[in-house]
Amino acid sequence: MTLALELKGVSKHYPQFSLSDLSLTLPEGQIMGLVGVNGAGKSTLLRLLTGLAAADSGQIEVLGHRLPAAQVAVKRGVGFASEDMRLYRGQTLDWHIELVRRIYPEWDASYAASLMRRFDLRADQPIGGFSHGQRVKALLLLCLARRPKLLLLDEPTTGLDPVARAEVLESLAEVLRDERRSVLFSSHNTHDVEQLADSIAFIHRGRLLACADKERFLGDWRRILCMGEATPELSAWPELAQLRSAGRQIELKVRRWQDDIPARLTQAGLDVQRVDPMALEDIFVTTVRAGGAA
Amino acid sequence: MKLDLNWPTIRLLVVKDWQLFQKQLAAYVLGGIVALGFLGLAKPWAFYIGSLLLIIVQVAVACFAISTSLLIERKEQTLAFVMSLPVSPLDFTIAKLAGNLLTFLVPFAVIGLATLLVILSTPLPDGLVVFALLLFGHILLAYCASLTVAMQVESEGWNTFVMIASMVLINPFIMLLGQIESIREVGRGEAIVWSGDAVLILSAQLLLGLALLAFTAWWNGRKPAFY
Amino acid sequence: MNPMLLLSASDPRPMYQQIVDQVTARVMAGEWSPGQSLPSIRELAASSGVSVITVKRAYEDLERAGVISTRHGKGSVVSDQPDQLRGLLDGTLDLHLAEATATAARLGLDRATLHHRLDAALDANRPAPSRPAARSDVAPADDTASPATPFRKGNGP
Residues near B33 by Cβ (< 8 Å), separated by ≥ 6? Predict the structure, then answer.
């Protein structure tokens, strides 16, 4: 299996923040969603992966190249867009396209034209007159039309209206038609990640809490509603991430789900009423509140 | 150190800086021509206004070159876009230095040469050439110092301070030149005489400027990554 | 461009379940005939804006249920034995009905109440305008009644 990127024991320290001992792999042809609260370390991780920042320790390989030494080769094959990246206000989108096209010979003019139509962008208008959503889409167009082998996108849907967001997500899904291309995108919008990602990397306070394929990750969690009395033994279950009760009704959120859990709850004297899968957002919030063990 | 530079991209980035500066460039050249027009009248009042205007234009060119290509790029976050292109910190430093020198040196040289032509072809004393070159030398040095700081320091406050301070120092520098008899006397006559003092000052300005640029290139280029 | 499947975040079922249900419904209705090729996993994922792994899981479930079969290097096709499949699904339905009647017995529900509950469950599953009219428009279990929005619009639930 070819890896689009690989991190081994990577640490990076800043005065107010550090990323510690991060190990992560993304196989070629997959979309990985990077989830975490603001300030969890998502942007730092993406900076490390583009070679813009050098790790203090550990190894980073992207598209088979070691970073930061081979950052030029990596940046040739990577399309990177981040939330804090802006285009030149006084120049048109066409001017930017011309610049990017000359740097990357893989530039696909017909794909660029179709993205221009889909994103409803005007090539001859200065970027300064674009709305926030249009600027984000322009930046994505510049990345996508190069057909990079790996897309690294920092919060690509933040601040977009629902229609623009759908357009962006659709174009990301289409990238994966080619099985040699991969995407890593960060988002604090868990719906985007849940819909689009093959695997989920969950970062909290500079540490990787979990990294698994999405179906398994979601399959590990359940919300269970029962009637009865919550006993101290129940609270001590290692699977239990959260317990709330209202009167005799008890809500349990469990990780590492096993099919025998309802039976064990019945044995503990509880009447199990519902067992439901959990949305990523719920899992995310539960994990962060439970002190960050996924 | 093995020099493995991405020349095609460096060239594109330099061209990009030049394109971004183009509109202002025309305005500066125009300002320079107006200033030289005053100088060319060879009247005391016109000479005073013309030389003042000339210094203002040259200082403005220096400040705006740095500001367009470094400070505004940082402030408007287009820097992140440039850094995402396939360039190493050394490529980026060279592109920035080259782009900056180009946008500054072209109008600087055009206006400078035109000034010398005006001095030589009008009733103004030809000896003023020495004086003018020393003043331009000061602006060049102040520009190199400001560029060095702008490449290293992110703080806008410090950058503005260094730019203004180094350029304003032209005033005491003019007074200093007035104190040096060999230079003062040459400026009044028709003969262009390079005294030892004048040569010393000019070569010090040029060498110091070059040393600052070399230091900037080395300092920024040695980093393995941008952050 | 017409989507191959009508997937929506407004549907309470998980995405992979929606794919399983819709593919099964089409095969049962004879809309997709035995031997017919299914879109490749990547193609379906790209065109409907869901992840590859979700489609993969749905295809695995469909294969286990006998609805489709995957031939090495040739992609997935609709299974050759729709009758066998129908029997399989019939068996599943019988199993669920048996479970339901057993639970009803534990609750002490009589036959009429259980009928009412079944009707209510059917109504809950399909957006019929009103209950009395429901009889006439009974169609094979299908998905076309779900809103025709292949992609999530808005922020979801």
Answer: B114
Local structure of residue B68 (DSSP, 8 states): I
Predicted confidence band of residue C155 (pLDDT cuts 50, 70, 90): very low
- Chain C contact for A198 (CB, 8 A cutoff): yes
Domain boundaries, chain A: 3-217, 222-277
CB B39 within 8 A of CB B118: yes
CA distance A187 to A189: 5
**In Å, how far is C71's CA from the nearest CA of chain A?**
19
**Thinking of the domain A3-217, which architecture would CATH place it in?**
3-Layer(aba) Sandwich (3.40)
Domain A222-277 sits in CATH at 3.30.70
Q: Report chain A residues whose CB lies below 8 A from the CB of B86.
A: 72-73, 75-76, 103
* pLDDT tens-digit map of C43-89: 899 888 888 899 999 999 998 888 888 877 778 888 887 667 777 77
User: Could you tell me if C91 and C71 lie in one domain?
Assistant: no
- Reduced to 3 states (helix: H, G, I; strand: E, B; else coil), residue A228 is coil
Cα–Cα nearest to A91, from A142, A164, A45, A133: A142
The mean predicted confidence, pLDDT, of chain A is: 90
B24: pLDDT confidence band, cut at 50, 70 and 90? Answer: confident
Contact across the interface for A88 and B8, Cβ inside 8 Å: no
**DSSP bridge pairs for A10:** A22
Domain extent for C100: 84-128
Do residues C120 and C60 share a domain?
no
Give residue ranges of A with CB < 8 Å to any B CB: 47, 50-54, 68-69, 71-73, 75-76, 80-82, 84-91, 95, 99, 102-103, 139
pLDDT range class, residue C140, cuts 50, 70, 90: very low
Q: What is the ipTM for the molecules in this complex?
A: 0.85
Both C64 and C76 in a single domain? yes
Determine, yes or no, domain membership for C46. Answer: yes
Whether C14 has its CB under 8 Å from any CB of chain A: the answer is yes
Please state, rounded to an integer, the average pLDDT across all residues of chain C: 75
| A87–B225 CB contact, under 8 Å | no
In a domain, C56, yes or no: yes
DSSP letters, B95-127, are HHHHHHHHHHHHHHHHHHHHHHHHHHHSSS-TT
pLDDT digits (tens, 9 = 90+) for B162-199: 999 999 999 999 999 989 888 888 888 888 888 889 99
Q: Please tell me if residue A173 touches chain C, with a CB cutoff of 8 Å.
A: yes
